[in-house]
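Box 3.1 A note on notation
Throughout this textbook, protein chains are presented in two layers. The first layer is the amino acid sequence; the second is a token string describing backbone geometry. Keep the layers aligned when reading.
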Amino acid sequence: MDTPNIEQTAQKLAALQQQICHAVIGQQHIVREIMIALIAGGHVLIEGVPGLGKTLLVRALTKAVGGKFKRIQFTPDLMPADISGHAMFDQKANEFRIRRGPIFSHFVITDEINRAPAKTQAALLEAMQEKQVTIEGQSFALESPFMVLATQNPIDQEGTYPLPLAQLDRFLVKILIDYPSLQEETDIVSAVTDGLVGDALNLDRINTILSAQDIVEFQKQAASLITDPAVIDYGVRIVHRCRDWRGVETGPGTRGSIALLRTAKAMALLNGSTFVTPDDIKSVAVMVLRHRIQLSADLEIEGRQPDDVIADILQAVDSPRQ
């Protein structure tokens, strides 16, 4: 793979990010993080209160790449078949037909994933891991790219089924969405109330500039980037320190180390680089590891967050010379 190809890819991805930002006001760092997860070929857990534009962001991404989008509202009575689909009897043809569920899309946003029971959560997470679903004994592959963006509300925990660490580990990254600034919120309100009826989402300014197949090729490019053994060692040492750091009860497993390198490669590609640097590792470490560690009660009482601990670990682990 030569340098011009990488540069062209970085330019196309920058144009894609710009298209998304035509619809999403503010939150540029959130758009960037979702772009990283997309190129790394992983799924995203998004934590934030309702009404911050998560669905709009994914709809904008879907239109820009000409993909298919579905939204699933998770509720306590949601069943696995509501996600994957089911067999139904066609009386005219006198045979059973498979009705495919909303999981058969390029981009699937699942609102409030922690409101569904464990059995339904497991059905979604199995599809995320295997990239296929089984209906009535038949296996159906999911199209590529396939990306799940699951949301959860950090405040309202009544009637929820929290995801255990083993299931959280299936998400490549966890992204935190905060409230917009005063100026950003003013711009959002002005844009949304200017001629739009109800809660309509304005995607008129979004142009389709890439295809789903383009995204698959970009993912392959990122996976093929050169990574020096010293950089791999650096990433693994960070994960190891997470396991024995004071106040960390449960640290990330090997999947955390793999996720850290995959995500760093995506970051390098977005930056137009042909190789991964220690700075790429540092820049993605928090979003890759924050949901993979569990803090002790003592640290939580002190008001410490996983992000704080990871920042301390990054300071403590020596970076290889570039």
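The mean pLDDT is 88. The chain is about 45% helix and 15% strand.
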